[in-house]
Amino acid sequence: MQINGDHCAFAAESAATRAMDGVRRLVRILRSSNADAQRTADLSSAQLFVLTHIAEHPNGSLSEVAARTLTTQSTASEVVARLVDRGLVSRAAAPDDRRRVALSATPFGRRALQISSPPIQSRLIASLACLPLDQQLAIADGLEAWLEIAGFDRVAPSMFFEPERAADAPAECSSQMEGYAEYEQKQSGQR
Prior knowledge:
By secondary structure, the protein is mainly α. It contains eight helices and two strands; from the N terminus they run ααααββαααα.
């Protein structure tokens, strides 16, 4: 019986190590990609990702950009506003519907894309889509369960390496720490 218990403990430790190593690899890749975008085009990786989608689909709407970048319209709006402020994206009335705002990359925006590497988010999304649906769902479900048990399920997702809104940051940090304290209590009660 002891051998079986040791085997289960080893398997759990091995799974935790594999999961943490996977997270470390992702963070390293994302950090490196962000540094490359900053160095080559003075953009965050999120800005490069959004700019790429805008350039690939000229005259698209904000909701289309949000859908293509797999984020909320509010988050996409913040990134687009930064790109507009920097002269990399233009806003204009849509040619087919004057009530809709159309987004397009400016010549400066297209130049930034020419000197940059493709955004890593596109590669991650495309490679995830290559997996069978059951594996895609297992990854999504596993990440959600992991964040929930760790107490981070209430933290709003944001685009990689984009600055947080100052008003949201303190509440987010408090929520994370409260969630971690709950996790610690659960763990100590299980021992």
